[in-house]
Amino acid sequence: MLLFIITCGLSLVFGILGVLNLAHGSLYMIGAYVAFSITSTFSQSFWTALIAAPLVVAVLALIIERTLLKSTYHLGHLSQVLLTFGLAYVFHDIAKLIWGSNVLSIQVPPSLEGSIIVFGQTFPLYRIVIIGVGVCLAFGLWWMQNKTRWGAIVRAGLSDKQMIGALGVNIHLVFTTIFVIGGLLAGFGGVVAAPVLGLYPDMEFQTLILALVVLVIGGLGSIAGTLVASVLVGTLETFGRFLFPEVSMFLVFALMAVILVWRPNGLLGKQVAEE
Predict the structure, then answer these.
(1) pLDDT in tens, 155-182
(2) How many structural domains compose the chain?
(3) Domain interval for residue 177
(4) What is the pTM of this model?
(5) Is residue 72 part of a domain?
(6) Pick from 135, 125, 183: which is nearest to 4 by CA?
(7) Is residue 78 in some structural domain?
(8) Angle formed by the axes of helices 2-17 and 24-41, to 10°?
(9) Is the residue at 221 inside a domain?
(10) Burial class (CB in 10 A: 0-12, 13-18, 19+), 257
(11) What pLDDT is attached to residue 163?
(12) Is 211 inside a domain boundary?
């Protein structure tokens, strides 16, 4: 579920806008570091950081979309990939300049520090909350994308921008809103993940690799596919690091290769294409 929370913004942007944002991992990283600054310097409240940090990242996403990405929409995917990949390295150096190269951490809020017993096993309360947040987020995004009038406008605009514009819909504003939501979700994922995964150099690139694997396995742009793939990849990567640490990443990529041979469009890619 933690992997899903981190990846869902990337899936949303690619599925609706067709933009593969390789700076998504950097937005996730910035959300985590901003939350660290808030909890260690300003309010020292995790809940304040949980609200403020995603908003900061959302504003940054708005600036990126309006000033840089907007001009590449007519140039194709390669320009967007190169632009966002370059931004990832820029943000990497900026983060090192501001926060340094030391490993940092954020404490779990006191209200979520306890444990609960489920079927005779003890689990940290914070991780149980993450599971619940992930489930709610998955349902909310799926409902927004497939069951709302706004989601229908967005899907129609992706297919025929001129027709939607002729009907009086500002599709460029809608697309900007989607990209900002994707940035907001990346920042939110950074804050939620920080107490579990910590903050360290290159965290954005390691996260981006897993996020792209999840995106490909689940089916590009499918929220349901992203959820299923996150569970598969997260479980395999976690048990792989524990049982076979030397080949844990190999197992993840082997899973991706097997699924792509079986279903080239990903687990739920066919359904997305038909819609």
Answers:
(1) 676 666 677 777 777 777 888 888 999 9
(2) 1
(3) 2-107+121-201
(4) 0.89
(5) yes
(6) 135
(7) yes
(8) 130
(9) no
(10) exposed
(11) 74
(12) no
